[in-house]
Amino acid sequence: MLNPRRERLETVRRRVQDLEGVTPGAGTASAAGDGAPVQDAAFISEFDGPSRGGVHAPSGPDAVVLSCLGGSQGDLGVVRALGRCGVRVVLVSEGDGAASALSRYVVEHRRIPSFSDGPGVLRVLESIADSRKGAGRPVLFPTADPDLDFVTRYRERLSRRFGLINPPPSIVEPCLDKSRFFGFATEHGFSIPETWSPANAEEVRQIGRSARFPLILKPSFPPSWSREPLASELRNKKALRLDTPAELQDWYGRIAAIDPKLVIQDYVPGRDDRLYSLHVYMDRTSQPLAWFTGRKLRTYPTYAGIGCFVESVVVPEIIEAGLSMLRRVGYTGLALLQFKRDDRDGSFKLLEINPRSSSWNQLAAACGVNLPYVAYLDAIGRPAAPPPAQRVGVKYLFLENDFLAFLDYRRHGDISTWQWIRSLAGPKVYQLFATDDLRPFVHDFGAKAGRLWRKVGRALSVHRARPRAR
């Protein structure tokens, strides 16, 4: 006889199958009403290295992975996920700073000045495809918003030479532009927090008088806050929580002078560990081939940043809701759906849909759900084997950012030093460190150690130059 949690899981599986013939992917290993992993020995095991699923790709087209300067390094996870399955990877990056360029799985590296130079980037990509004629069309993997925006703008021309794994502009554009996403979501019946796109300060004042605080202020196009001077002013936050009308007006005025396209949204109560994600690949008939769910335990910057400590959990509620949403709009390709669990009623609220992989996509691959490889196989017309059950309890750690997050959480009384240390126990996958691909980590560690050494040297020089008291 099934235990209650397993019985609930089976119910969700049947519901998903009822969504016009959906075949469950890898995202149905366990169910937890509160988002915590089910402690079931049949599904939890020690992580023993990168999961390859025992499958290696036969010779086939190359994959071309795009990497943005200052991005969240999601490109490295995609490079490793494909390379470990035998796919040859070409990297196209802005400048020389991409850690993924040092990966053993990159067979060729092309540098470009910026993805904003559309025609120039197009020429580079077309030359890559033309040099591989006869080997099949390479598959193109954007990994951040700026390169996804480029692929969307030039989709028709790129589709002549590349296999594409992202949805068409009619879906990508409202998902990238947060000022349009609320209308898109409302049109298709998605339940998301109330959202406003003010045109001027007067509209902001009207919102401040009628809305319930706290509110969230965020950019229409997130990369705009990653560039200076806003990156320093906002300390790399993705959004701001504002508790009073005065705060709202003040911050709007300061930011709108630089980036006028801003979005105001109702705040969903709950700490950072109430943030959940559904990662999925939908084939050309909007059928999910595989999916994965994770829970953010900590983010950096704190309270409005990117996941730096994330756990593999299975949450049937967002699997069912998310797949239903994607099928409703005829979604195809990779998708990342962000949800937050509302402390007031326990419901999951959709925050956004990103038509690409996440910055911590390597966690899914480590748990047996290799979404980039599933996308690659579908793009070249080869069937993907059913993925194994998602391994739960494995954690993703970006140690440098997580340590900075810990310091801030501790300052606000959200975590103690001992609690942080204890949380790091258990099987993990890291942002940079991988035993089969050490160069990105070694290079990053060496660069940071060098900067620290030079900083200490300058401090000592200043100290020695000071006149001694007599």
Oligomer: single chain
Q: What is Rg? A: 23 Å
What is the spatial order of strands in the main beta sheet? 14-13-10-11-12-15-16
- CATH C-level category of the largest domain: Alpha Beta
> Span from first to last CA?
85 Å
Give the rounded overall mean pLDDT. 85
How much of the residues is beta strand, in percent?
A: 15-25%
Give the arrangement of secondary structure elements:
Layout: H1 4-18, E1 63-67, H2 74-83, E2 89-94, E3 106-112, H3 118-130, E4 139-141, H4 145-153, H5 155-158, E5 163-164, H6 169-176, H7 178-187, E6 195-196, H8 201-210, E7 215-219, H9 230-233, E8 240-242, H10 245-256, E9 262-266, E10 275-282, E11 288-300, E12 306-312, H11 316-328, E13 333-341, E14 348-354, H12 362-366, H13 371-379, E15 395-397, H14 399-411, H15 417-423, E16 428-430, H16 439-465
Parallel strand pairs: 1-2, 1-4, 2-3, 4-5, 15-16
Antiparallel strand pairs: 6-9, 7-8, 7-9, 10-11, 10-13, 11-12, 12-15, 13-14
Helix pairs in contact: 1-11, 4-6, 6-7, 8-10
What key attributes describe this structure?
Dna Ligase, domain 1, 470 residues, 7-stranded mixed sheet, 2 domains, globular, D-amino Acid Aminotransferase, Chain A, domain 1, 16 helices, 5-stranded parallel sheet, alpha/beta
Q: Could you describe the 3D structure shown?
A:
By secondary structure, this protein is of the alpha/beta class. The protein has 2 domains: 4-35 and 60-174 and 270-404, D-amino Acid Aminotransferase, Chain A, domain 1 (2-Layer Sandwich); 194-266, Dna Ligase, domain 1 (2-Layer Sandwich). It has helices at residues 4-18, 74-83, 118-130, 145-153, 155-158, 169-176, 178-187, 201-210, 230-233, 245-256, 316-328, 362-366, 371-379, 399-411, 417-423, 439-465; strands spanning 63-67, 89-94, 106-112, 139-141, 163-164, 195-196, 215-219, 240-242, 262-266, 275-282, 288-300, 306-312, 333-341, 348-354, 395-397, 428-430. The chain is globular and about 65 Å long.
